[in-house]
């Protein structure tokens, strides 16, 4: 994902209206860094790896998890819903484009 699309959509209104703005500025800054890390790892990050990457911020990370800013599944992988939606959308466009290119070749 990061190589094909090195950026994700960021909607200011969604950020400003979202639950993340109820958190401290420090937590908000950490979260946007987590989003960047998550996106560059193709939306596949293990919770333990996240804690290592952002070492020293365990309390804030756990707070973000408890507030459902991101989720952790039963395999200990994190999920950030707005990025997962973009990844899914991007995957659908890629498949559609590939099918269209294949049909034009034929």
Q: SSE layout and pairings?
A:
Blueprint: H1 12-17, H2 25-40, H3 47-53, H4 58-66, E1 71-72, E2 78-79, H5 81-105
Antiparallel strand pairs: 1-2
Walk me through the structure.
The chain has five helices and two strands, in the order ααααββα. The protein has 106 residues and is mainly alpha-helical. It has a two-stranded antiparallel sheet. The chain starts with 11 loop residues before the first helix and ends with a helix. The mean pLDDT is 88.
Pick out its properties.
mainly alpha; two-stranded antiparallel ribbon; 2 strands; 59% helix; globular
Give the terminus-to-terminus CA distance: 28 Å
Largest sheet: 2 strands, antiparallel
Spatial strand sequence of the major β-sheet = 1-2
Q: What is the overall shape?
A: globular
The assigned structural class equals mainly alpha
| Count of strand segments | 2
Number of helix segments?
5
**Would you list the SSEs in sequence order as H and E?**
HHHHEEH
How much β-strand is present in the residues? under 5%
Which runs of at least 5 residues are low in confidence (pLDDT < 50)?
none
Mean pLDDT: 88
Question: Fraction of residues in helices?
Answer: 55-70%
CA-based gyration radius: 16 Å
């Amino acid at each position: 994902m990061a190589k094909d699309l090195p950026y994700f959509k960021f909607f200011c209104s969604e950020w400003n209206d979202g639950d993340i703005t109820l958190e401290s500025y420090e937590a908000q800054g950490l979260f946007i860094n987590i989003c960047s890390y998550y996106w560059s790892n193709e939306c596949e990050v293990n919770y333990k790896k996240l804690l290592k990457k952002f070492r020293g911020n365990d309390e804030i990370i756990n707070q973000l998890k408890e507030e459902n800013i991101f989720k952790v599944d039963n395999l200990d992988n994190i999920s950030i819903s707005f990025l997962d939606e973009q990844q899914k959308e991007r995957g659908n466009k890629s498949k559609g484009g590939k099918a269209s290119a294949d049909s034009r070749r034929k």
